[in-house]
Every structure is written in structure tokens, then in C-alpha cells.
Amino acid sequence: MFGTADTSLGKVLTDSHGFTLYRFDPDTPTSSACTGECAALWPPVTGMPSAASGTTLPGKLSTISRPDGSTQAVYDGHPAYRYTQDRAPGQTNGEGVLGTWHVIKPDAGAAAGPSTTSAPSAAATTGSGSTSLY
């Protein structure tokens, strides 16, 4: 079951025990790149995901098949993991590890961009010197 918790990094997705969940940049919405020793340090959240009672999650819950045949929970296109160095609920020790591990924010999909299909104005896409802001 997925829930949420307020942390020093803002609201994050948690497992049923309140531990922070993470995403791995090399993953895709349909496959996990974290296996072997990686998965020992970053255990995948397995099984069918669901929202905890009383929790509303704006993102899509789904699963993928891992290379070992197990089913991994996915939130909004991000396979979910725990970090073994988080020793207590609400800790976020895995944020930024190797520059590729990040907490999963419940509103990650909503933060990805505007929901309209119109193109943003030039002022919204460039800063001083016409450098792209994203």
C-alpha cells in the first residue's frame, strides 16, 4: 500500500510502514535497471500497488515484471524502491545518491508540465540570453 508523508523534502510517497519510496533515473515505465547488488541496497517494492485507506494519489498505479519474474509496483511510470539506509519512517537518506536516485513525490506527474496542449510563450521557455529554462 502506498501512502504519503511530509518530510524535509516535502510530501513523498511511502510504503505501508511509512518508509520513503524512491525512483531510479535509468528505469523506464516498463522496466527496472536495478538488479543484483543494486536491488540488495535498493529493494524493489513488489506486488500490486494500492493507495492506503484515506490516501488520494493523483498518479497512476501499475506494475512491471522484473528480470527475476517478480512483480514490481510502479507509481506514475516510476518503478518504486526502498533504500536500506533509511532506518526509520520518514527518512530520505536516498535522495540524490549517485545523482540518479530520487524520492517519489505523489504529485510528480502534475509537476511534469502544463496540462494544456498549447505551446508556451518564448518568455516562459527562455531566460536572459535566450537560454532554455528546462
TrEMBL record:
GO terms for biological process: alkane catabolic process. The keyword Lipoprotein applies. Residues 51-70, 109-134 are annotated as: Disordered. Residues 52-70 have a biased composition (Polar residues). Keywords: Lipoprotein. This is Predicted lipoprotein with conserved Yx(FWY)xxD motif. It comes from Micromonospora avicenniae.
